[in-house]
C-alpha cells in the first residue's frame, strides 16, 4: 500500500468518525426529547389547562391554540401563496420585474422570525388595534408562512410537464383555466406535501407570536363555539399562547414548580407533531398521486 | 358576406378571454400583496429604527461603539446609554463560532452521506436531518437550558449561561440545515467527473477532495451562509441560554446578550415611541440589514459559482 | 449529387397553386415570417390548405415543421414572433384583435406525446366543453360517445370512462387526445407527429382514424415517417432550413419531385 492510499484510508476514517459523531449528537437530541418527554405525556396533560404556580398543569389550551392558529394562518396564506405561485409559474416573464419579485420573496423567507413578529406587533396589535390576539397571530404567521409556501407550490407547479399546459391551451382554454383546472390538480401531491411541511414550521414557531398572539392563555369555555364570545375557543380576539410560546415562557419565567416536566412533555408533543407532519406529507402526497393515476 | 360574419365572431371577446384577464389580475394582486408586505416591513422597521437617531438625537457613533446599554439613562461620560456594541458583538460571536464549529462537521457528514455510504445516508441520516431541520427553535432552547447550560457550568465554571452555551445551541441548530443543503449541492455535481477521476487512478479521498468538494464549493458556501443567517436571526433558543446581560462579553462563559435576545426580552417592557422603545427598533433594524446582507452574499456566491462553470 | 441540380435545370422551389374555382381553401398563409427572438425560423412559406384533405408536413429535424404548424392556431403566441397573414376561411387570424381562444377552438391541435390530463377519460373529453359552460349530462354523454367513436377508441374504453386517463396505453391515450380535440367541434385539426410515440399497430389504427376524419375536417399533420406521409396524405409540403421547398400532390412529391432537394430527401440521399 503506497502513501496516497494510506492517506486516503486515513481521511475516509476521519470522515466516518465525524459523521459518527454527528449521528451521536442527532440521536442524543431525538432520544433526549422523547425519553425525557414521553413519560410526562398523559391524557390529562394534553387536555387540562396550565397552572402557573402549581405543579400538575397541562397544555390543553396551548395545544388547541397552536392548531387553531395553524389552521387560520394556512387558510389565509394558501390562496395568496397559490395566486403568487401561479403568477410566477404562468405569467412572469424573464425580466427585471420578475427578478425583483423573486428577490423580495427570498428576502421575506430569510427574514428573522422575530423581525416578522415585531412587524406584526406594530401593524396588527398596535396600528389595527387587534391587541394580542388570535387574529394578530394568524396574520403574522401568514406573513411568516407566505414565502416558503409560495416557493413550495411554485416548485410543484413547475414539476408538471409542459405538455399538460399545451394540451389545455390547444383546446382553446385560457392559461388561467389551464393552470387552475389542469396543472394544479396534476401537482396536487406536491402541493399537499408542501402545505404539510409548511404546517410543521408554522406549528413550532414562537418568536413571531410572543408579541402578536400574546403570552397568556385565558380559560376557554369549550361548550361555547360562538366566535363572537370572548371565552369561546373560536374567538379571534382573545390572546392565545401556543405550545411553542408556552415552552419559552415558562422557562424564561422559571416560576412553575414542575417546569422541567411540563417543558419536556411539551417539547416531545411538538416534535411528535412535526414528525407526524413530516411522515404524513410523504404518505398523503404518495396516496393522492396513486389515487390520481390508478384505476378508480 | 360570410367572411365578415366570421371575422366578427372571431373578434368578439370570448368568455375565456375574460377569464384570462381575471386570472392574470388575481394572481398578480396576490404577488403584489407579498411585495407590499416586504416593502412594508422594511419601511416600518427602518422608520422606527431610524427614529432613535433622527428624533431622539442619538449619534450613530454612540450606538455602534458605545458599550453601555440602558436607554433612558446616561453613561458616566454624559452620553445617552444607547451603546449596542455588546449585543452586536454577541450576535456576531455566537454566529461565527457556531458556523466555524458546524461547517466541518456538516461537510464531513454530507460527504459521508453522499460519497461513502449513500445507502445508509439516504435511509437513516436523510430523514433524521430533515426532521431536525424542522424542529422548533424553542425545543433547541429548552434542551440548551437543561443540558448545555449545566454541562458548561460543570465543565468551565460560572453560571453556564453565556456565549459558549449560545454557540453550542446554535451549532446543533444549524447543523442539520447546513448538512441537508450541502448534501443537495454534492448530489448536484455530475457523476461523470468522479468516475473519470477514479478511473484515472485517483484515490477515493483525492476524488472527494479535488473533484467532488471543489465542484460543490459554491453550494457549500451558500449552505454555510444560510446557516449563519439562521443563527444570526435566531431569537428564543439563544435568549434562553445566553444569560441576557447587555454587557460586553468578558469571556465565553460570562452572561452576554445578542440583538435578538435583548429585543425579545425588552419589547414587552417599553412604551411605544419612547427612547427605550425606539432603541430596540434600532436593534431590529440592524437585524434586518444583516439579513439583507446575508441575502446579498448568497446572491453573490450564486453568481460567482455560475460564472466559474 | 450537387451537379445534378444544375444539369436537370430543376427549380429551387415549387409551390402548387390551387385553381381558385374548384377548391375550398380552409387555411392559407401569406408573407409568413416567424422569428424566435431575432433569428428567423420560417419564411417563404405561403401555402394553402384545402378543405377535407390531409396535408403532410415533412422535412429534416429542425426544418421548422412544428414552428409552422404551431403558428396556424397561434400556439406560438408568447414564444415566437409571427409576421404576415394567416387566413382561416378568409379571415386573417394573425392580428391582435382576434380572440385567440376561439381560434384555437376552431383549429384544434394534437401533440407528439400523448398528453391526457390527470382526470378521468370522460372528463378529459368533456373538460373544455364544461369550461365553456356546457354541463348538460345528456349532451356531454353524447359528445363523449361520438368523439370517442370518431377517434376509434370507444370500444376499448366505453366500460371504463371513469378510469383515470393516465392509466391508458400510449395509443389509446393518443386517440383519447384526438377525441378531446374533436369535442370542441373544430374544423381544422393540426397534428404534430402524433404517431411517433406509438407502436406500428396503434399507428395503423391512428391513420385509419385520420382517413375517416378527413370527411369532416381539414387535417394538417407533421410526420417524420415518409411512408406514413405517402400512405395517408393528399398533399405534402417539404420543409428545409425554415422554408417550404416543395408543395404538391403527395403522389407527385414522392414519385416525380420537382425540386432536386426534395428528390434527395424522399429518396433518402439527403445530407
Ligand atoms: N422555443 C424555441 N425557441 C427558440 N428556437 C426554437 C424554439 N423552438 C424551435 N426553435 C428553433 O426553430 C427551428 C425549427 O424548429 P422546429 O421545432 O419547428 O423544427 P421541426 O421541423 O419541428 O423539427 P423536429 O422534426 O425535430 O420536430 C430550430 O432551429 C429550432 O432550434
Ligand atoms: Mg417538431
UniProtKB/TrEMBL annotation, chain A:
Family: Belongs to the binding-protein-dependent transport system permease family. CysTW subfamily.
Bilayer topology: Multi-pass membrane protein
Record Pfam families: BPD_transp_1
Protein keywords: Cell membrane, Membrane, Transmembrane, Transmembrane helix, Transport
The name this protein goes by in its record: Phosphate transport system permease protein PstA
Organism expressing this protein natively: Lentilactobacillus parakefiri
Domain ABC transmembrane type-1: 63-281
Subcellular location: Cell membrane
TM helices/strands, residue ranges: 12-35, 67-92, 104-124, 130-149, 179-203, 266-284
Main location: membrane
Annotated GO CC locations: plasma membrane
GO process terms (BP): phosphate ion transmembrane transport
TrEMBL record, chain B:
Similarity-based family: Belongs to the binding-protein-dependent transport system permease family. CysTW subfamily.
Biological process terms in GO annotation: phosphate ion transport
Segments crossing the lipid bilayer: 21-46, 84-107, 128-149, 161-183, 211-232, 279-301
UniProt-recorded name of the protein: Phosphate transport system permease protein
PROSITE patterns: ABC_TM1
Gene3D superfamilies: MetI-like
GO cellular component, one term: plasma membrane
Keyword entries, A-Z: Cell membrane, Membrane, Phosphate transport, Transmembrane, Transmembrane helix, Transport
Automatic annotation (TrEMBL), chain C:
The organism's place on the tree of life at top rank: Bacteria
Keywords for the protein's UniProt record, in alphabetical order: ATP-binding, Cell membrane, Membrane, Nucleotide-binding, Phosphate transport, Translocase, Transport
Keyword Nucleotide-binding assigned: yes
Organism annotation: Lentilactobacillus parakefiri
Gene Ontology annotations for the cellular component aspect, listed alphabetically: membrane
Pfam families: ABC_tran
Name listed for the protein in its UniProt record: Phosphate ABC transporter ATP-binding protein
Domain ABC transporter: 27-266
NCBIfam families listed in its UniProt record: 3a0107s01c2
Presence of keyword Ubl conjugation: no
CDD domains according to UniProt: ABC_PstB_phosphate_transporter
GO molecular function: ATP binding; ATP hydrolysis activity; phosphate transmembrane transporter activity
GO biological process, one term: phosphate ion transmembrane transport
Gene3D superfamilies per record: P-loop containing nucleotide triphosphate hydrolases
Amino acid at each position: 500500500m503506497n502513501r496516497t492510499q494510506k492517506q486516503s484510508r486515513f481521511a475516509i476514517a476521519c470522515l466516518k468518525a465525524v459523521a459518527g459523531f454527528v449521528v451521536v449528537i442527532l440521536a442524543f437530541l431525538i432520544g433526549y426529547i422523547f425519553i425525557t418527554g414521553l413519560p410526562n405525556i398523559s391524557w390529562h396533560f394534553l387536555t387540562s389547562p396550565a397552572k402557573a404556580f402549581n405543579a400538575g398543569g397541562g397544555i390543553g389550551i396551548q395545544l388547541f391554540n397552536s392548531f387553531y392558529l395553524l389552521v387560520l394562518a394556512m387558510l389565509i396564506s394558501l390562496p395568496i401563496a397559490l395566486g403568487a405561485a401561479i403568477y410566477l409559474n404562468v405569467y412572469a416573464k424573464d425580466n427585471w420585474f420578475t427578478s425583483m419579485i423573486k428577490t423580495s420573496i427570498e428576502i421575506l423567507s430569510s427574514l428573522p422570525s422575530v423581525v416578522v413578529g415585531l412587524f406584526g406587533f406594530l401593524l396588527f396589535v398596535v396600528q389595527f388595534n387587534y391587541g394580542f390576539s388570535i387574529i394578530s397571530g394568524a396574520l403574522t404567521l401568514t406573513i411568516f408562512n407566505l414565502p416558503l409556501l409560495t416557493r413550495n407550490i411554485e416548485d410543484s407547479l413547475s414539476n408538471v410537464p409542459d405538455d399538460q399546459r399545451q394540451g389545455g391551451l390547444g383546446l382553446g382554454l385560457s392559461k388561467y383555466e389551464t393552470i387552475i383546472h389542469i396543472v394544479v390538480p396534476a401537482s396536487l401531491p406536491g402541493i399537499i406535501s408542501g402545505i404539510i411541511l409548511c404546517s410543521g414550521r408554522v406549528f413550532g414557531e414562537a418568536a413571531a407570536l410572543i408579541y402578536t398572539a400574546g403570552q397568556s392563555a385565558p380559560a376557554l369555555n369549550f361548550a361555547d363555539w360562538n366566535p363572537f364570545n370572548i371565552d369561546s375557543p373560536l374567538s379571534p380576539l382573545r390572546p392565545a399562547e401556543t405550545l411553542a410560546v408556552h415552552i419559552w415562557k415558562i422557562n424564561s419565567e422559571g416560576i412553575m414548580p414542575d417546569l422541567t416536566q411540563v417543558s419536556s412533555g411539551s417539547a416531545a408533543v411538538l416534535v411528535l407533531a412535526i414528525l407526524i407532519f413530516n411522515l404524513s406529507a410523504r404518505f398523503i402526497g404518495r396516496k393522492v398521486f396513486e389515487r390520481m393515476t390508478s384505476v378508480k | 358576406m360570410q367572411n365578415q360574419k366570421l371575422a366578427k365572431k372571431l373578434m368578439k371577446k370570448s368568455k375565456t378571454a375574460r377569464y384570462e384577464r381575471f386570472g392574470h389580475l388575481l394572481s398578480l394582486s396576490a404577488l403584489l400583496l407579498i411585495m407590499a408586505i416586504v416593502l412594508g416591513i422594511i419601511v416600518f422597521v427602518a422608520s422606527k429604527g431610524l427614529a432613535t437617531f433622527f428624533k431622539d438625537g442619538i449619534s450613530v457613533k454612540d450606538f455602534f461603539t458605545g458599550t453601555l446599554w440602558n436607554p433612558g439613562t446616561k453613561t458616566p461620560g454624559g452620553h445617552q446609554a444607547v451603546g449596542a456594541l455588546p449585543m452586536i458583538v454577541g450576535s456576531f460571536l455566537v454566529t461565527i463560532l457556531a458556523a466555524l464549529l458546524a461547517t466541518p462537521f456538516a461537510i464531513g457528514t454530507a460527504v459521508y452521506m453522499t460519497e461513502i455510504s449513500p445507502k445508509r445516508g439516504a435511509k437513516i441520516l436523510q430523514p433524521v436531518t430533515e426532521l431536525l431541520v424542522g424542529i422548533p427553535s424553542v425545543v433547541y432552547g429548552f434542551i440548551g437550558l437543561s443540558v448545555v447550560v449545566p454541562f458548561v457550568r460543570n465543565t468551565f465554571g460560572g453560571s453556564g449561561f453565556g456565549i459558549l452555551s449560545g454557540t453550542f445551541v446554535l451549532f446543533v441548530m444549524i447543523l442539520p440545515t447546513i448538512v441537508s443543503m450541502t448534501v443537495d449541492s454534492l448530489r448536484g455535481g455530475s457523476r461523470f467527473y468522479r468516475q473519470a477521476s477514479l478511473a484515472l487512478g485517483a484515490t477515493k479521498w483525492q476524488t472527494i477532495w479535488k473533484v467532488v468538494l471543489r465542484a460543490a464549493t459554491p453550494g457549500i458556501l451558500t449552505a454555510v451562509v444560510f446557516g449563519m443567517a439562521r443563527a444570526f436571526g435566531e431569537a428564543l433558543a439563544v435568549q434562553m441560554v445566553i444569560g441576557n446581560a447587555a454587557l460586553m462579553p468578558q469571556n465565553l462563559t460570562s452572561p452576554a446578550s445578542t440583538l435578538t435576545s435583548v429585543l425579545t426580552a425588552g419589547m414587552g417592557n417599553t412604551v411605544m415611541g419612547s427612547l427605550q422603545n425606539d432603541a430596540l427598533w434600532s436593534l431590529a433594524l440592524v437585524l434586518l440589514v444583516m439579513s439583507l446582507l446575508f441575502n446579498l452574499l448568497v446572491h453573490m456566491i450564486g453568481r460567482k459559482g455560475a460564472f466559474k462553470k | 449529387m450537387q451537379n445534378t441540380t444544375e444539369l436537370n435545370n430543376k427549380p429551387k422551389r415549387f409551390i402548387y397553386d390551387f385553381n381558385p374555382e374548384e377548391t375550398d381553401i380552409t387555411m392559407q398563409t401569406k408573407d409568413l415570417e416567424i422569428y424566435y427572438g431575432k433569428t428567423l425560423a420560417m419564411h417563404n412559406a405561403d401555402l394553402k390548405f384545402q378543405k377535407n384533405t390531409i396535408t403532410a408536413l415533412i422535412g429534416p429535424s429542425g426544418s421548422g415543421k412544428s414552428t409552422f404548424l404551431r403558428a396556424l392556431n397561434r400556439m406560438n403566441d408568447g414564444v415566437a414572433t409571427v409576421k404576415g397573414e394567416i387566413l382561416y376561411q378568409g379571415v386573417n387570424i394573425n392580428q391582435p384583435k382576434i380572440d385567440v381562444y376561439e381560434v384555437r377552438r376552431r383549429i384544434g391541435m394534437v401533440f407528439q406525446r400523448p398528453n391526457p390530463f390527470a382526470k378521468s377519460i370522460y372528463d378529459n373529453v368533456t373538460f373544455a366543453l364544461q369550461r365553456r359552460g356546457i354541463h348538460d349530462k345528456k349532451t356531454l354523454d353524447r359528445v363523449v360517445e361520438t368523439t370517442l367513436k370518431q377517434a376509434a377508441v370507444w370500444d376499448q374504453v366505453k366500460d371504463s370512462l371513469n378510469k383515470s386517463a393516465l392509466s391508458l396505453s400510449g395509443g389509446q391515450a393518443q386517440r383519447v387526445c384526438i377525441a378531446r380535440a374533436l369535442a370542441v367541434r373544430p374544423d381544422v385539426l393540426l397534428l404534430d407527429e402524433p404517431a411517433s410515440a406509438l407502436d406500428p399497430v396503434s399507428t395503423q389504427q391512428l391513420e385509419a382514424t385520420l382517413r375517416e376524419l378527413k370527411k369532416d375536417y381539414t387535417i394538417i399533420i407533421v410526420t417524420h415517417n415518409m411512408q406514413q406521409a405517402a400512405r395517408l396524405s393528399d398533399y405534402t409540403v417539404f420543409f428545409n432550413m425554415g422554408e417550404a421547398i416543395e408543395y404538391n400532390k403527395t403522389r407527385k412529391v414522392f414519385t416525380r419531385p420537382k425540386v432536386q432537394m426534395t428528390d434527395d430527401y424522399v429518396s433518402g440521399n439527403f445530407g
